[in-house]
Protein backbone atom coordinates (compact mmCIF):
# COMPACT_ATOMS: atom_id res chain seq x y z
CA UNK A 1 0.00 0.00 0.00
CA UNK A 2 1.17 3.52 -0.71
CA UNK A 3 0.00 6.86 0.61
CA UNK A 4 -1.08 9.47 -1.89
CA UNK A 5 1.79 11.84 -2.81
CA UNK A 6 0.61 15.49 -2.60
CA UNK A 7 1.77 16.22 -6.14
CA UNK A 8 0.71 13.01 -7.85
CA UNK A 9 -2.46 14.40 -9.43
CA UNK A 10 -0.71 16.80 -11.75
CA UNK A 11 1.81 14.16 -12.71
CA UNK A 12 -0.86 11.85 -14.11
CA UNK A 13 -2.36 11.93 -17.56
CA UNK A 14 -6.01 12.82 -18.10
CA UNK A 15 -7.95 9.55 -18.26
CA UNK A 16 -10.50 11.00 -20.69
CA UNK A 17 -7.94 10.44 -23.42
CA UNK A 18 -6.56 7.16 -22.08
CA UNK A 19 -10.01 5.54 -22.07
CA UNK A 20 -11.29 7.36 -25.14
CA UNK A 21 -11.51 4.17 -27.19
CA UNK A 22 -13.57 2.55 -24.44
CA UNK A 23 -16.31 5.19 -24.52
CA UNK A 24 -19.80 3.97 -25.35
CA UNK A 25 -21.17 4.60 -28.85
CA UNK A 26 -23.86 7.23 -29.29
CA UNK A 27 -26.69 4.67 -29.08
CA UNK A 28 -25.29 2.77 -26.10
CA UNK A 29 -27.30 2.11 -22.96
CA UNK A 30 -27.41 4.81 -20.31
CA UNK A 31 -24.56 4.47 -17.75
CA UNK A 32 -25.45 3.11 -14.32
CA UNK A 33 -24.99 6.53 -12.70
CA UNK A 34 -27.76 8.91 -13.83
CA UNK A 35 -27.24 12.57 -14.61
CA UNK A 36 -27.93 15.12 -11.86
CA UNK A 37 -27.92 12.60 -8.99
CA UNK A 38 -26.49 9.24 -8.00
CA UNK A 39 -28.51 6.11 -7.32
CA UNK A 40 -25.89 4.95 -4.87
CA UNK A 41 -22.52 5.95 -3.50
CA UNK A 42 -21.30 2.55 -4.78
CA UNK A 43 -21.89 1.45 -8.37
CA UNK A 44 -20.46 -0.75 -11.08
CA UNK A 45 -18.44 0.82 -13.89
CA UNK A 46 -17.22 -0.55 -17.19
CA UNK A 47 -15.20 0.39 -20.25
CA UNK A 48 -18.40 1.71 -21.83
CA UNK A 49 -19.72 3.72 -18.86
CA UNK A 50 -16.51 5.19 -17.47
CA UNK A 51 -17.09 8.65 -18.96
CA UNK A 52 -19.62 9.22 -16.15
CA UNK A 53 -16.94 8.44 -13.57
CA UNK A 54 -14.73 11.10 -15.15
CA UNK A 55 -17.57 13.62 -14.96
CA UNK A 56 -18.28 12.86 -11.30
CA UNK A 57 -14.58 13.12 -10.43
CA UNK A 58 -14.72 16.88 -10.98
CA UNK A 59 -17.08 17.08 -7.99
CA UNK A 60 -15.81 14.35 -5.64
CA UNK A 61 -12.94 11.85 -5.75
CA UNK A 62 -14.11 8.53 -7.20
CA UNK A 63 -12.47 5.43 -5.74
CA UNK A 64 -12.02 2.71 -8.39
CA UNK A 65 -11.82 -0.84 -7.03
CA UNK A 66 -10.76 -3.54 -9.50
CA UNK A 67 -12.05 -6.99 -8.57
CA UNK A 68 -12.05 -10.47 -10.09
CA UNK A 69 -15.26 -12.18 -11.25
CA UNK A 70 -17.19 -13.39 -8.22
CA UNK A 71 -15.03 -11.39 -5.78
CA UNK A 72 -16.95 -8.99 -3.57
CA UNK A 73 -15.49 -5.46 -3.31
CA UNK A 74 -13.95 -4.55 0.04
CA UNK A 75 -14.38 -0.77 -0.07
CA UNK A 76 -18.19 -0.07 -0.05
CA UNK A 77 -18.74 0.31 3.69
CA UNK A 78 -15.73 2.57 4.14
CA UNK A 79 -16.62 4.76 1.15
CA UNK A 80 -20.25 5.08 2.30
CA UNK A 81 -19.07 6.24 5.73
CA UNK A 82 -17.69 9.40 4.09
CA UNK A 83 -21.31 10.44 3.42
CA UNK A 84 -21.03 11.66 -0.14
CA UNK A 85 -17.48 13.02 -0.07
CA UNK A 86 -16.31 9.90 -1.95
CA UNK A 87 -17.86 7.58 -4.53
CA UNK A 88 -16.88 4.01 -5.34
CA UNK A 89 -16.82 2.56 -8.86
CA UNK A 90 -16.39 -1.22 -8.87
CA UNK A 91 -14.76 -2.62 -12.01
CA UNK A 92 -14.45 -6.24 -13.09
CA UNK A 93 -10.82 -6.17 -14.21
CA UNK A 94 -11.14 -9.23 -16.45
CA UNK A 95 -14.23 -7.95 -18.28
CA UNK A 96 -12.92 -4.41 -18.79
CA UNK A 97 -9.44 -4.58 -20.34
CA UNK A 98 -9.41 -0.94 -21.47
CA UNK A 99 -9.73 0.30 -17.90
CA UNK A 100 -7.28 -2.28 -16.58
CA UNK A 101 -4.75 -1.06 -19.14
CA UNK A 102 -5.47 2.62 -18.50
CA UNK A 103 -4.85 2.15 -14.76
CA UNK A 104 -1.98 -0.34 -15.41
CA UNK A 105 -3.65 -2.95 -13.22
CA UNK A 106 -1.72 -6.21 -13.36
CA UNK A 107 -3.39 -8.01 -10.46
CA UNK A 108 -6.56 -7.72 -8.40
CA UNK A 109 -7.82 -6.61 -6.01
CA UNK A 110 -6.39 -3.17 -6.74
CA UNK A 111 -7.66 0.24 -5.71
CA UNK A 112 -7.07 3.55 -7.48
CA UNK A 113 -8.96 6.83 -7.68
CA UNK A 114 -9.92 9.50 -10.18
CA UNK A 115 -9.72 13.18 -9.26
CA UNK A 116 -10.61 15.81 -11.84
CA UNK A 117 -10.32 13.22 -14.60
CA UNK A 118 -6.86 12.05 -13.58
CA UNK A 119 -5.80 8.73 -12.07
CA UNK A 120 -4.21 8.38 -8.64
CA UNK A 121 -2.69 5.04 -7.58
CA UNK A 122 -3.69 3.99 -4.05
CA UNK A 123 -2.89 0.38 -3.12
CA UNK A 124 -2.95 -3.31 -4.02
CA UNK A 125 -4.73 -5.89 -1.93
CA UNK A 126 -6.92 -5.10 1.07
CA UNK A 127 -5.19 -3.13 3.84
CA UNK A 128 -6.67 -2.65 7.28
CA UNK A 129 -9.53 -0.21 7.74
CA UNK A 130 -7.39 2.40 9.58
CA UNK A 131 -4.78 2.26 6.81
CA UNK A 132 -7.47 2.59 4.16
CA UNK A 133 -9.04 5.57 5.90
CA UNK A 134 -5.65 7.28 6.14
CA UNK A 135 -5.16 6.88 2.39
CA UNK A 136 -8.68 8.17 1.68
CA UNK A 137 -8.11 11.15 3.99
CA UNK A 138 -4.89 11.93 2.12
CA UNK A 139 -6.80 11.62 -1.14
CA UNK A 140 -9.42 14.14 0.02
CA UNK A 141 -6.64 16.55 0.95
CA UNK A 142 -5.11 16.10 -2.48
CA UNK A 143 -8.48 16.67 -4.12
CA UNK A 144 -9.01 19.87 -2.12
CA UNK A 145 -5.64 21.19 -3.30
CA UNK A 146 -6.94 20.73 -6.84
CA UNK A 147 -10.34 22.34 -6.28
CA UNK A 148 -12.38 19.13 -5.95
CA UNK A 149 -14.31 19.74 -2.72
CA UNK A 150 -17.93 18.83 -3.47
CA UNK A 151 -20.30 16.21 -2.11
CA UNK A 152 -23.00 14.11 -3.76
CA UNK A 153 -26.37 12.97 -2.50
CA UNK A 154 -28.49 9.96 -3.36
CA UNK A 155 -31.63 10.69 -5.35
CA UNK A 156 -33.55 9.92 -8.50
CA UNK A 157 -33.12 11.97 -11.69
CA UNK A 158 -35.54 14.89 -11.68
CA UNK A 159 -36.06 14.69 -7.94
CA UNK A 160 -36.37 18.16 -6.36
CA UNK A 161 -33.35 19.31 -4.42
CA UNK A 162 -32.48 22.13 -2.08
CA UNK A 163 -31.76 24.58 -4.87
CA UNK A 164 -28.06 23.93 -4.93
CA UNK A 165 -26.55 22.96 -8.30
CA UNK A 166 -25.68 19.26 -8.63
CA UNK A 167 -22.21 20.14 -9.87
CA UNK A 168 -20.12 23.32 -9.64
CA UNK A 169 -20.35 25.72 -12.56
CA UNK A 170 -17.02 25.82 -14.37
CA UNK A 171 -15.48 28.90 -15.89
CA UNK A 172 -15.18 28.64 -19.68
CA UNK A 173 -11.75 27.70 -20.99
CA UNK A 174 -9.78 30.15 -23.15
CA UNK A 175 -10.56 29.53 -26.84
CA UNK A 176 -7.37 27.68 -27.76
CA UNK A 177 -7.59 25.58 -24.61
CA UNK A 178 -11.19 24.65 -25.41
CA UNK A 179 -10.26 23.74 -28.97
CA UNK A 180 -7.42 21.58 -27.65
CA UNK A 181 -9.69 19.90 -25.10
CA UNK A 182 -12.31 19.11 -27.75
CA UNK A 183 -9.63 17.76 -30.07
CA UNK A 184 -8.25 15.48 -27.34
CA UNK A 185 -11.76 14.15 -26.66
CA UNK A 186 -12.04 13.34 -30.38
CA UNK A 187 -8.61 11.68 -30.44
CA UNK A 188 -7.22 14.40 -32.72
CA UNK A 189 -3.93 14.96 -30.92
CA UNK A 190 -2.33 16.85 -33.81
CA UNK A 191 -5.00 19.56 -33.65
CA UNK A 192 -4.71 19.73 -29.87
CA UNK A 193 -0.95 20.22 -30.17
CA UNK A 194 -1.48 22.98 -32.73
CA UNK A 195 -3.99 24.78 -30.50
CA UNK A 196 -1.72 24.66 -27.46
CA UNK A 197 1.13 26.01 -29.59
CA UNK A 198 -1.10 28.90 -30.67
CA UNK A 199 -1.93 29.65 -27.04
CA UNK A 200 1.76 29.66 -26.14
CA UNK A 201 2.58 31.92 -29.11
CA UNK A 202 -0.01 34.40 -27.85
CA UNK A 203 1.16 34.14 -24.25
CA UNK A 204 4.52 32.43 -23.62
CA UNK A 205 3.77 32.56 -19.87
CA UNK A 206 0.64 30.39 -20.25
CA UNK A 207 1.86 27.58 -18.01
CA UNK A 208 -1.32 25.55 -18.44
CA UNK A 209 -0.85 25.56 -22.22
CA UNK A 210 2.79 24.50 -21.82
CA UNK A 211 1.77 21.63 -19.53
CA UNK A 212 -1.12 20.76 -21.82
CA UNK A 213 1.20 20.63 -24.82
CA UNK A 214 3.53 18.27 -22.96
CA UNK A 215 0.64 16.00 -21.95
CA UNK A 216 -1.00 15.79 -25.36
CA UNK A 217 2.39 15.16 -26.99
CA UNK A 218 2.78 12.23 -24.61
CA UNK A 219 -0.67 10.94 -25.55
CA UNK A 220 0.13 11.24 -29.25
CA UNK A 221 3.33 9.21 -28.84
CA UNK A 222 1.45 6.45 -26.97
CA UNK A 223 -1.55 6.34 -29.28
CA UNK A 224 -1.90 2.90 -30.87
CA UNK A 225 0.76 1.28 -28.68
CA UNK A 226 0.13 -1.52 -26.18
CA UNK A 227 1.61 -1.84 -22.73
CA UNK A 228 2.89 -5.36 -23.43
CA UNK A 229 4.65 -4.41 -26.66
CA UNK A 230 6.27 -1.30 -25.21
CA UNK A 231 7.58 -3.08 -22.12
CA UNK A 232 8.76 -6.10 -24.12
CA UNK A 233 10.73 -3.87 -26.49
CA UNK A 234 12.23 -1.98 -23.55
CA UNK A 235 13.34 -5.21 -21.89
CA UNK A 236 14.78 -6.64 -25.11
CA UNK A 237 16.65 -3.44 -26.06
CA UNK A 238 17.91 -1.86 -22.83
CA UNK A 239 20.34 0.46 -24.64
CA UNK A 240 17.99 1.45 -27.48
CA UNK A 241 16.99 5.09 -26.99
CA UNK A 242 13.62 4.92 -28.74
CA UNK A 243 12.60 1.80 -26.83
CA UNK A 244 13.55 3.35 -23.49
CA UNK A 245 11.83 6.64 -24.30
CA UNK A 246 8.63 4.71 -25.04
CA UNK A 247 8.77 2.86 -21.71
CA UNK A 248 9.41 6.16 -19.93
CA UNK A 249 6.35 7.61 -21.67
CA UNK A 250 4.30 4.66 -20.48
CA UNK A 251 5.52 5.09 -16.91
CA UNK A 252 4.74 8.79 -17.01
CA UNK A 253 1.25 8.16 -18.38
CA UNK A 254 0.49 5.89 -15.42
CA UNK A 255 1.78 8.37 -12.84
CA UNK A 256 5.00 6.41 -12.20
CA UNK A 257 7.01 9.62 -12.34
CA UNK A 258 10.11 8.41 -10.52
CA UNK A 259 10.40 5.36 -12.78
CA UNK A 260 10.24 7.54 -15.90
CA UNK A 261 12.86 9.95 -14.56
CA UNK A 262 15.22 7.25 -13.32
CA UNK A 263 15.09 5.28 -16.57
CA UNK A 264 16.18 8.24 -18.69
CA UNK A 265 18.69 9.66 -16.23
CA UNK A 266 20.44 6.28 -15.95
CA UNK A 267 20.58 5.97 -19.74
CA UNK A 268 21.83 9.54 -20.27
CA UNK A 269 25.60 9.12 -19.69
CA UNK A 270 25.90 6.33 -22.30
CA UNK A 271 24.33 8.36 -25.13
CA UNK A 272 25.90 10.42 -27.88
CA UNK A 273 25.13 14.13 -28.06
CA UNK A 274 22.02 13.69 -30.18
CA UNK A 275 20.69 11.10 -27.74
CA UNK A 276 21.42 13.32 -24.75
CA UNK A 277 19.57 16.19 -26.42
CA UNK A 278 16.56 13.92 -27.02
CA UNK A 279 16.51 12.75 -23.40
CA UNK A 280 16.90 16.29 -22.08
CA UNK A 281 13.97 17.47 -24.23
CA UNK A 282 11.80 14.58 -23.08
CA UNK A 283 12.64 15.16 -19.42
CA UNK A 284 11.78 18.84 -19.71
CA UNK A 285 8.37 17.81 -21.05
CA UNK A 286 7.91 15.49 -18.09
CA UNK A 287 8.87 18.29 -15.71
CA UNK A 288 6.06 20.41 -17.17
CA UNK A 289 3.55 17.59 -16.71
CA UNK A 290 4.52 16.92 -13.10
CA UNK A 291 4.99 20.58 -12.17
CA UNK A 292 8.06 22.53 -11.15
CA UNK A 293 7.14 22.35 -7.46
CA UNK A 294 7.04 18.55 -7.41
CA UNK A 295 9.94 17.30 -5.23
CA UNK A 296 10.57 14.50 -7.74
CA UNK A 297 11.04 17.11 -10.45
CA UNK A 298 13.38 19.13 -8.26
CA UNK A 299 15.54 16.07 -7.59
CA UNK A 300 15.54 14.93 -11.22
CA UNK A 301 16.34 18.43 -12.47
CA UNK A 302 19.31 18.57 -10.11
CA UNK A 303 20.56 15.21 -11.36
CA UNK A 304 20.14 16.27 -15.00
CA UNK A 305 22.05 19.47 -14.37
CA UNK A 306 24.93 17.51 -12.81
CA UNK A 307 24.98 15.20 -15.81
CA UNK A 308 25.03 18.11 -18.24
CA UNK A 309 27.79 20.01 -16.50
Write the layout of secondary structure elements.
Elements: H1 15-18, E1 42-44, H2 50-56, E2 62-67, H3 76-80, E3 87-92, H4 97-102, E4 110-115, E5 118-124, H5 129-145, H6 175-185, H7 189-202, H8 207-222, H9 227-236, H10 241-253, H11 257-267, H12 273-290, H13 295-308
Parallel strand pairs: 1-3, 2-3
Antiparallel strand pairs: 2-4, 4-5
Helix pairs in contact: 6-7, 7-8, 8-10, 8-12, 9-10, 10-11, 11-12, 11-13, 12-13
The domain tally reads 2
Number of strands: 5
CATH overall fold name of the largest domain: Serine Threonine Protein Phosphatase 5, Tetratricopeptide repeat
Pick out the low-confidence regions.
1-13, 17-36, 156-161, 165-170
Distance between the termini: 38 Å
Oligomer: single chain
**What is the CATH architecture descriptor of the largest domain?**
Alpha Horseshoe
SS-derived structural category: alpha/beta
CATH class of the largest domain: Mainly Alpha
Number of H- or I-type helical stretches: 13
Rg measurement, Å: 20 Å
Q: How would you write the strand order of the largest sheet?
A: 1-3-2-4-5
Shape: globular
Strand content: 5-15%
Largest sheet: 5 strands, mixed
Instruction: Determine the mean pLDDT.
Output: 81
The helix-strand sequence is HEHEHEHEEHHHHHHHHH
The residue fraction in helices comes out at 40-55%
